[in-house]
User: Fold these one by one.
Assistant:
Number 1:
Amino acid sequence: MNKTVLAHFAAAIAALSAGAAVVATRFVIGETDPLALAFYRYFIGVICFVPILPFIWPKTRIPLTEYGKIAVLGLLFFGFFPWAFNASLQYIPAARGAVGLATIPVQTLIVAVIFGRERLTLQKLMAVGLAFAGIAIVFGPEAMKLSQSDYFVGDSLMLLGVFSAAIYSVFSRGTLMRHGPLFVTALAMVFAVGALFPLTYFQSGVSGIPTFSAEGWLAVMFLGTFAGAIQFSLFTWALRWLPPTTTVLYLTLNPITAMLFGVLLIGEALEFVLIAGLALVVSGIFIGNGALTGLWGRVFSERPNAEGGSRPLVER
């Protein structure tokens, strides 16, 4: 089996574990607070990375400015993003949160266009329009109801966290290419854990081993290992062998996984509005990543001629 095929499997498994992480967070969030959960998750992730860190450390000297960039990226992606993510799931169901999480590729596209990192096209505009139509269907009407005011808080936190992840995705690419995605991910996580510890200590009084239920411990261990260190390692390894757009497409598996696990394990209702919104979001992501490029090229590049054949619309 060649590395390209393995990369597809790695990206798919990483995306599926990210969707399952939404449900695992819902399992344990009632036993702790969002900040402490982020600390515990990535502390376990750092422990997983420590044995391999000497082997993935770059051979060339790294300037202090690069360490600063990695630290900022780590605080953003492994600090603020998980806090907002965990906090949002105190107010919204796992499936609803996963739909918001699935907008990462679209929000990344918007940030990239605003900062001149990517050119905006009609196809990309269609993708953004479809995705935000899905967000409006799922988030808008229910968020405005007085009885569902908590949804507005949860949705806002999720989308804000996703926006910070989008900023990380756009501005981390150069650093990842220079020093290796696995090394940058590991070191960024170390910086984030170092920053989260004092905040968690003063807010939650973390001074020893936390007291989770058996199910809570399983959820935290899953979040730190398979949905932490392993998930990010698989995803960054897939980025080495697959085009970024191909790899990001697998993120559309997140809400599907979370929805299925939420229905099967937590007993959440499978609402039609979630399915409709998810369909629009996924359609937008696929179009934004060029899924229709080949089809449009075949439809618009040729037209029938008088003999019943076809000829190019544009002379080559």
Note: Residues 3-312 form one domain.
Number 2:
Amino acid sequence: MRGFDGKAWVRGTTLVVACFLATPTHATQEALTLEAVIARGSAYVDVYVKELTTVVMEEDYRQSHFRRGRTNPTRTQLRSEFLLVRLGEDAAWTGFRDVFEANGRRVRDRQDRLASLFLDDTTTAVARARRVVEESSRYNLGTTSRTFNIPTYALSYLLPSNTARFRFEQDGVGCGDDHPTAWDIRYEEVATPTLTRGFQNIDLPSNGRFCIDPDAGTIFETEIELHHPSVGPQVPATEAVAAVTFALNPDVGLWVPSEMRERYSERRGGRTTSTARYGNYRKFSVTTSENTDPDTEPDDGK
């Protein structure tokens, strides 16, 4: 299996997307510049990540895999607990998926198993949670594994330490009927090394768009596009796209991802489409750091 990863081209595709809550200002939209809107979005994200601890949600993940030359796809539906954890002061979120139901069949008891790992013993929680993720990844369809797909990865693009890595351009006002005054902003990663790396550590520049409230900096929609070139016969050229929409959740008081749509296409190969919908958010007030003890880390091929 092949895919993108936030660190290397391995057996997974890491695409991810984020959205957060901020206090609005009273400046008029006419007085704003693109630089000001990006700065507000960046400040909004910077404040939010300092408040975020751990969030658990339920994910309904429906996948369709189309083999080359075939029109009838293979389909699957997974229901999982999905845990978002920030592993360091300057890090983006890491996501952990724990499948409890596959195609209507219960595969384990429904419980906050992932959250209990971090609440119980944070020194080995990451290693143990990754083992759960690897166990759950066997249910995925297609040639591109989505073990580390998380809907908050794009948060890292708007951190103050990363905005200079991107070129931004306003692409109009209004993101659908729900956000008529939001700014549609395109971005292109221009700095190297890139945040996402590929097979043999090659650069994989990201591009896409953000739908941002120009006053508050709130992110309503995100989209990421990645292209991995072919590398010999074992790695075909692959296109990956992930788009996320967000909604205000009163239970946690945050704008949270409500839906993520993904598409993976291999040149002269198969393609996989998927839709993930999220709900039942629960917030746990814990702090964790990634375990560095090699004796407790699983061998995941990275």
Note: The chain has a mean pLDDT of 78.
